[in-house]
Amino acid sequence: VKMRSLAPGIKLITSFSRDSWYRFFILILTFVFYTTYHLSRKPISIVKVIKNNYQNLFGVLDNCFLVAYAIGMFFSGMFGERLPLRYYLSSGMILSGLFTVLFGLGFYWQIHSLWYYCLVQALNGLVQTTGWPAVVACVGNWFGKGKRGFIMGIWNSHTSVGNILGSLIAGVYVSSSWGLSFIVPGIIIASAGVICFLFLVESKSHMLDIWGICLFVHESVEQEPLLRNSSSNEEIFSTNTSTAVEPEEDHTEAISFCGALRIPGVVEFSLCLLFAKLVSYTFLYWLPLYIANVAHFDPKEAGDLSTLFDVGGIVGGILAGLISDYSGGRATTCCAMLIIAAPMLFLYNKIGQNGLPTTIGMLLWCGALVNGPYALITTAVSADLGTHECLRGNSRALSTVTAIIDGTGSIGAAIGPLLAGLISPTGWNNVFYMLIAADVLAFESIMLLSRLVYKEVRGWCGYTTRQRG
After folding, report:
1. Which residues form the Major facilitator superfamily (MFS) profile domain (predicted)?
2. Taking the CB of residue 234, how many other CB atoms lie within 10 A of it?
3. CA–CA separation, 462 vs 185, rounded Å?
4. Given a cut of 70, is residue 234 above it in pLDDT?
């Protein structure tokens, strides 16, 4: 009897184990969740284009959100390690959707009180802190070791994808009914929160009761960095069925705030992210207005054009992860991109509006160089430090370390847009001088790790594979 072969697509699907499919599912799910977080943050930068006479007012609103976000982030990681991630993340998304919708409803309710919008923005900033530590911890629970910065660079593009979608959605309504620019993203993130509650599986161990037996191979060296290069050909999604083994006992005591600060490199990379995020978030909140004022585009065109900065950010994040994986140098990759970013910002301010092709090219370059180090620090570096060898396998430090690094960066994210609002009336040149100075300070901060950079470069010169601590 002639046997009929399976269709190639079915062969591909069945070649992956159940472990692999759950990992892929979690990666996609967390990508979508954090995309909606940034999607709901972006509309205010589009709406301020039609309210050109209220730059200082919008600077205040930006700061209400960002200061609350920065303060809340330092506590969010500790909550995330002590509460069920599914409840923590889904409740944060639903509440964020509620406050985003309330901001938009102010247009229809004809609310003209600054305090109303400031309060809504501050509360939204607090609940948005649930996002980053939770998704990083969730991914860390599923991907134990030997995972590549290239894959995490792609995953981290959710930030830029969210900014792009938020700009496009807000741009549709900004000229006619700006309230919908907030209401629609608010409904989207709240809906994603419901999906999170229904489908998120926050760790591999939670599937054991369902399956009855352990179908996952326990990671034997849990303290290895999440994104460390593997000398073997290990892939994120293994095509081999996992072997049933007994899980090792994990350290259940969560790390303290001061304990996380003592991890080598946490303070230095946190300071670097402070200045890098200052530059990135200034672009996030003020780039559409800059394009509208300097290049004289209408609000929708300015919002659409500003998405190119985020497109460049996607490419920069992926390249930063790929280069750091290939070279073995996280710190050196950040330094190199920050060095190039400063003159590129200067050039964008001087010649960036000399024709549409020049504008597009400069936005892509600036986005890649500014967001590349930002993406690398918030993913690969945070994961490396959160699973540092000095923790002796304590897998519950990742959320707190991530929150400290991102919380420090969020201080810069709050300062940048505020300074831009204060400086922009004196001229956009001065805003760019401030951004260039911040980029240089980011470089100086990471040079506090000059010994690490030296070791990385020495490893390249000797053509040896260096293990990161």
Report:
1. 1-454
2. 12
3. 51
4. no
Length of the chain: 469
Mean pLDDT of the chain, nearest integer: 80
The pLDDT of 396-420, averaged and rounded, is 84
Split at pLDDT 50, 70, 90, the class of 380 is confident
User: Using 50, 70 and 90 to split pLDDT, how confident is the model at 34?
Assistant: very high
Sign of CA dihedral 296, 297, 303, 306: negative
Q: How far apart are CA 6 and CA 437, in angstroms?
A: 60
Query: What is the rounded distance in angstroms from the CA atom of residue 195 to the CA atom of residue 32?
Result: 10
**Which residue bears the tokens 């102010």?**
106
Give the lowest-confidence range in 58-67, 96-105, 110-119. 58-67
Amino acid letter, 395: S
pLDDT, one tens digit per residue, over 295-337 is: 888 888 888 898 999 999 999 999 998 888 887 788 888 889 9
Amino acid identity, residue 313?
Answer: G
The Cα–Cα gap between 39 and 45 comes to 11
Does the reported pTM lie above 0.70?
A: yes
Cβ atoms of 286 and 344 closer than 8 Å? no
